[in-house]
Request: fold
Amino acid sequence: MKKSNLIFLTAAMTLFFMTGCTSSAPAMGNAKGAGTSETTLSVTASEEMAASETASPDTSSADTIEAGTAGDGTGTDKDEQPESTAATTEVKKAEPFEPALDTGKSVELNIIGFYDNFPSLDTVYADFKEYYPNVSISYEKLDDYWNAVRDRLSSGQKVDIFMSVKSYSTTEQGIMSKSVNLADPQYGIDISALDSDVIKDNSADDNVLYRMPLYRKTEGLMVNDSLLIENGLSLPSNFVEFMHCCSVLKSKGYIPITGFIGNKNSSLVGTALAKSRIYVDAAHSSDPEGARKALNEASEGSAEEYLAPTLERLSQIIAAGYFDRDAAASIVDNYDSTILRFFEGDVGFMCGNTMTMSGTAKRESRSEAFKADPFKYTFIAAPLSDYGSPMCIESSDGFSVFNGAENLDYAIEFIRFFCTAKELNRSAEAKGLISTAADMLGNRQFPDLDFSDKSMTVTEAEFALDAGTE
Reply:
């Protein structure tokens, strides 16, 4: 049995914070003895979706809604190896969109997904209607999407486009066999509008792409910027500055760091503080392939060399009392509860990810503490390095076209329209996330994430651990 390595790393980091371990870099054999390395789970579409649903708000009903009338249920609501990141991708000038089909025909496109509401879809649909005024879009959120999407695709009823996760375009053969290859030249979709790393993250073949990723995500920290300023501090850019901020905040009676610990399979704390540093260190080591192999084995000390620097930093944080486990105990999920606890205003750094951050704007009005005493906040990559803030970025939710769709030509036309820098950026901005476009038109959503420092970034596509199999 091969271990599920991504989950294993999360489990190890979570155990670290749950137990308050302060020894430096415990051997992986010890972690195994603690019961964390022998998990039989694998990173499948169901787990990708669970993470996305947990981190995407309001996923409770199965009502059908018309795009253009959906409520703001998702809240308004940086990656790095030197040669291939968003910061270095050569972007060609976009050509104006020219409709390829009958613009007067009345068509209803049916889209199914796992978001409860989809205002970012509304944004793109409103633009699409300028070209196709008689095309309507009906969006339906399905409960138990992992199983329901298979049933819907098998029946072929009321589905033209469906929401997809990365494994739908890489390992899930049953789903891939029912998906249109968006890279096929006959469809005229300019996939070069997508960042090259996004494409690589979703396909091993440049000529095959079964889904159009909509957003990119990374882990890090939500920061109470006002609290830092009030205490004579600024955003930390390295580990020394980070620890200084934590020291000052603790001395003033504030909580330096906390977050959703959860369990061994779901934790923002472990990934927010540890994953990016581990990935960046390994990817930029003298032997990246050896590092990948060691982390994939993830047992009997094989990965210790690559985990030790990060675990040492976590040990220092815990030993100094900067991570508040009592506060973490009151946080019950990695989205709504995390955001509302952050809005209490007494936490300097809240572990999270960009999906968590995307839901903050909507929840400002739901927090009595925030309404009474609002503050400025931002999002940064965790500064666990002496030289900067390591960051690992991966693609998130996307759209696939059902190859048996009743309105296949118009479904493909909608994706052709969507797969442009303008619309990808507008959708990401409406969702509050990082765009998948090669030309991101600036980083307005997350101004304090630095895409330019190549030594501090890696993409999931450039350095990905095996998902693991049973």
Notes: The first helix runs from residue 5 to 19. The chain has a mean pLDDT of 80. The CA atoms of residues 168 and 175 lie 6 Å apart. The two ends are 5 Å apart (CA to CA).
